[in-house]
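> forwarded from #structure-qc
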């Protein structure tokens, strides 16, 4: 049987991973172009992870591992994805990007 702390860790893990479920749904869309959505979605995932502050060592370790992996694979943001997002009217102002990634 799981302890209360373990149940809380599971709840926190679900909260941590929920946006990844939504991102997977967005990226697997076959009826629309996804390149323009890729950059804003991944930037939002990184922001989400950066805003997670848990008392649980397990949650912090999972968060740090995912952040390290995303950072190593996603740094710098692919310029073609940024161009596609810029050309899409939904993301015209590139508010999801830092000034460093826009330059």
């Amino acid at each position: 049987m799981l302890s209360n702390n373990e149940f809380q860790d599971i709840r926190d893990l679900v909260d941590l991973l929920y946006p990844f479920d939504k991102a997977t749904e967005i990226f697997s869309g076959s009826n629309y172009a996804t390149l323009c959505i890729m950059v804003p979605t991944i930037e939002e995932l990184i922001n989400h992870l950066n805003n997670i502050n848990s008392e649980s060592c397990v949650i912090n370790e999972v968060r740090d591992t995912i952040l390290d992996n995303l950072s190593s694979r996603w740094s710098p943001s692919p310029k073609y994805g940024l161009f596609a997002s810029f050309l899409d009217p939904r993301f015209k102002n590139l508010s999801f990007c830092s000034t460093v990634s826009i330059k």
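QC bot note: DSSP finds five helices and no strands in the chain. The helical segments are 4-27, 35-50, 57-74, 79-87, 99-102.
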